[in-house]
Each structure stands twice: as structure tokens, then as C-alpha cells.
Amino acid sequence: MEKKQINRTSQSNNSQLSKEVSVKVRKSAGLYVGITMLLIGAAVFFFALLTETPQPVTHLASHTQGVDSQPIPRDPGQTGRYRFFENPEEAHPLPVTLPPSEFINQGIANSYRIAKEIPEVLVQQPCLCGCDNTSDDHRSLLDCFADEHASTCMVCMKEAVYASKMTEEGKSGAWIRDAITRHEFSDVSIGN
């Protein structure tokens, strides 16, 4: 009888030990699975981070006032750099620009009014903000006013106001373009 009791105690201890080992193995397996998942996630994150293609840099300094640095001038013309039309007839049909009445801000509305009044002058001008690099649809400064882009871009609006003032002074589209590529529009107020 004593032997049976020892056997039962031994079996009970073995069973309990087996359960404890089983629990520890399950906990360890769960821990290893968790660590493995974490390492895989970190590896994927760093791989994505290292292989991400950098976005092209636009000339942000030209969008802000009071910044001394100017964007690096590029060659004008339909070369894939600054785009414009030397002959406004080549741009026909001209893009339809948004109505100035869509804008509450007077300066923004004024620049869109200018786009409606002198589209053949604006089509001869490059947009120096870099939007022509983001879209094949932007072939000149006038295209910036065909959507809401110009309403958020001080460069576009200043160029339009400058072109309007120079047109009133009798300057040609080519003369205005040359002055714009030298950033002579930078100090112009859009009038808001």
C-alpha cells in the first residue's frame, strides 16, 4: 500500500511538474513569437525607411516673404525647366481660369482678375514656384490660375500682379519674362 501511495505521489508530482513545464514552454513560445514579430516589424520599417524615394525639393524659399535666399534660376523656355510660350498664339486654346468672385481675399481675387484680363501676357510667363515640375498640365503661369493652385501660392500671385503692372507700363511679354526670371516680382504686393 505504501508503494502505491508513493507511486501516486510520484505520478502526481510528475504530472504537476509536467504541467509546469508545459506552461513555461507555452509562455516561452509566446515570448519568442512576440519577439520574432517585433523584430520582423522593425526590419520591415527600416527597410521601408531606407528604400523610400526622396521627394523632389521645390523652391520653398520663394513662397515665403522676407527670405533672403532665392531659388536657383533655371533656363526659361519649353525645355522641361521653366515653361512658357514665346508666341501666345501657340498656347491657344487658352486655359479657362477660375472666376475672381470665388475668392474672398481681395489679393487673391485680384490676381485671378488679372489672369482673366491679360491671359495672353501670362501665358508668356514662366511660373517660378516649381508647379510646372509637378504636372504636365502647367505650361505657363496662366495654368496656375486654371485651378486653385495660385490661390495658395504667393509666387504665382506676385508674378501675375507684376506682369499686370508692367503691361500697363507698356512692357512686352518677353521683357516681363526676363524681369520675372531675375525675380524682380519679389517685392510686389498682391494688395490684400
Topology:
Layout: H1 2-51, H2 106-117, H3 119-122, H4 154-168, H5 173-181
Summary, kept brief:
This protein is mainly alpha-helical.
Descriptive overview:
- The chain is mostly helical and 192 residues long.
- The protein folds into two domains: 1-52; 60-181, no CATH class.
- The chain has helices at residues 2-51, 106-117, 119-122, 154-168, 173-181.
- The N and C termini lie far apart (105 Å).
What's the overall average pLDDT, rounded? 77
The succession of helices and strands, N to C, reads HHHHH
Number of domains: 2
Name the helicity range: 40-55%
Beta-strand residue percentage = under 5%
What distance separates the N and C termini?
A: 105 Å
Number of separate strands: 0
Radius of gyration: 34 Å
Shape: rod-shaped
Which structural category fits the helices and strands? mainly alpha
Major β-sheet annotation? none
* Uncertain residue ranges: 53-78
Helix count, per DSSP?
5
Structural features:
single chain, 192 residues, mainly alpha, 2 domains, 5 helices, 0% strand
